[in-house]
Amino acid sequence: MNVQRLRALVRLVLLFYFSVVANGASSTLSEATNDVSKSVDTTRTTTTCHDDICDCDFGLQCTLGAESDTVLFNVYPSAAATLECVSDQMNARLVIEQKPKANIHANSIFLMKNCTRIKTLLKRPNVMYYINIKEDSILTEDFFQPWHGIHSIINIQMSSERVLPAKLFHKLKNLRTLTIFTTPESTPTRKAYILPSHIFETLVDLETLAFDFTQTANARVTLQNLTTAHFRNLTALKHLKLVETRVGALPADIFSTLTQLEYLNLRANNLQVLPSKLLDAQRKLLILDLSENVLEHLPAELLKHTTALYQLRLRDNRLHSVTNIIENIRALPYLHKLDLCSNSLESVRGTGAYANETLMSGFKHKAKLSARMLEKISTILGDNVEQEENTKTHLDVSRNRIGAFDMSWFDGAPFYLNISDNNISNIYALKPLLQKDSNCRGQIDIVGNPLVCDCKLAWAYNNSCIANLDSVLCNNTVPTNSYGRLNYMHEDDLCAWPHAMCPHKCVCTARATSLQITCAGANMSALPHLPRPEQVALHTTELDISRNRFRTLPTLNTFGYANVTHLNVSHNEISELDVAQLPPHLALLDVRHNNLTHLSYDFLNAYILRSEAPLQLYLAHNP
């Protein structure tokens, strides 16, 4: 059998492999490069390879890596053993002596690289072992006996409903990373795995523990009896994954000793209710994943102590109360990413005590992430979090039941907003997404909503800040040559009059009955164009231009001014009220603290003596 055929066979039948990586060991082994190249003939077939240990029926291939050094053990159950080994038989024996205690008379393949001085290599303190076990039936209590004291990364595939030996890991006191996982099964099956409560009790240096199960339509697997005792001694643990284990419920104190935890993933565990004190000890937690459960609400104080939280993933649950979410996240100063995709939210605005808050309220004044926090987050996410992430906010509320959205709710730091696939017919925007430097203040995805393309959506025309703009469809009657797509329409197809944004020094807010525009103390002497209330599905405007430098009222032809019904021009320098400068449907006028000396007959006749409701007029502190 040649080397190529053997390797093909390995790929087909491999069930267990063990690899050892020594970082920085290449300099030690480089001295042996010439000796290895002289003693190894990679084209010649040999059959001498310690027959009392294993059989060998193909030639040696031994290479030295420039950056890392590797030894692979491959074991699979079959009929006979084969070995790809060095020409020096003693080196083969030395490698085999390092192998876990398993039956080497089972069919085995050993692929050895960096064969010379292998025993010395395996005993170096900077060696990191990567051990992948794909058949848990070979695991005995003393399986890892040869490796006590090493730093290892161990992956164990569970394949049978057996209880792992209680002391399986007890000799691996310096273990850093451990993953226990399952793979999809094609045949219908129901399996329950049980871990002895003290199986991890000596792993005081463990930093990463992952339970990564895979569920399919045919195969359902569960991890049972998970208790506080399993985690009690894992005081150095930083990363914990319990993925698709279907544990169903968690004790309130199960994580009480995990004070160093930075990443907690509880995705897809059929969790319906969470204890309110579940995360009381996680003051260093940066990322929390509760996705793909069946949560309908979060306990009010669940996140009370997770003040370092940067990312919260809640997608694919049954959350329906936005007030409940606001209540939990409002005191998280470092929260920059919130994922609520695929829930049952009907709004992003709170109710009751939180009626003036939205999901975005807490994002306006975020605390700055330190370089150390960014480094840790990058390690967890496996990606480099750039410094710009310091200010950028990500909110995903796609695939909910939201009926309307106002972009003024997200008036804060740069953002990425996903509101796609909701029931939104109108998206209001009174502040431009494009900044003065033509860069987008944020990116927004609105695809998949039943949008009405009219004056209320005119702000979106040819807007580069909208993601997937070519895919935005209109749900109302639009010109046929636009093919129902917003990006193919002309601006005057959307609205007969030009769209105006909120003036730079003003605050514009859509209230229940009117558009409120506040420009108080803005050092104005003339009124800029104002947004019209129709842009936010309203009919009237309340305008506050108090404490400015106005000497006369604004002219009536100022865009948006004619819609004003409540006008506050107090604390200015106005000396005359000209009827031609007052909006026609004015109901309230506040001119206190100005320079008025009299009221004209035309003003009294038009606004005070009229048959309809008289004008509410405030005149105090005028000469």
Helix content: 10-25%
**CATH domain class name of the domain at 507-618:** Alpha Beta
CATH architecture of the domain at 507-618: Alpha-Beta Horseshoe
Low-confidence stretches are: 1-96, 98-127
Written overview of the protein:
- It is a single chain.
- The chain is α/β, with parallel strands linked by helices and 623 residues long.
- Among the domains are: 393-494, Leucine-rich repeat, LRR (right-handed beta-alpha superhelix); 507-618, Ribonuclease Inhibitor (Leucine-rich repeat, LRR (right-handed beta-alpha superhelix)), CATH 3.80.10.
- The chain is built from ten helices and 26 strands.
- The chain has helices spanning 3-13, 26-29, 33-39, 89-98, 118-122, 228-231, 322-329, 371-381, 491-494, 601-608, and strands at residues 16-23, 68-75, 108-112, 127-133, 151-157, 177-181, 189-194, 208-212, 219-224, 239-243, 263-265, 287-289, 311-313, 337-339, 393-396, 404-406, 415-418, 426-428, 442-445, 466-467, 507-510, 515-518, 541-544, 564-568, 588-590, 616-618.
- The strands form four sheets. A 16-stranded mixed sheet has the order 3-2-1-4-5-6-8-10-11-12-13-14-15-17-19-20, with no helix packed on it. Strands 21-22-23-24-25-26 form a six-stranded mixed sheet, with no helix packed on it. The chain has a two-stranded parallel sheet with strand order 7-9.
- Strand 13, helix 7 and strand 14 form a beta-alpha-beta unit.
- It is elongated, with a radius of gyration of 35 Å.
- The chain starts with a helix and ends in a 5-residue tail after the last strand.
- Mean pLDDT is 77; it is low at 1-96 and 98-127.
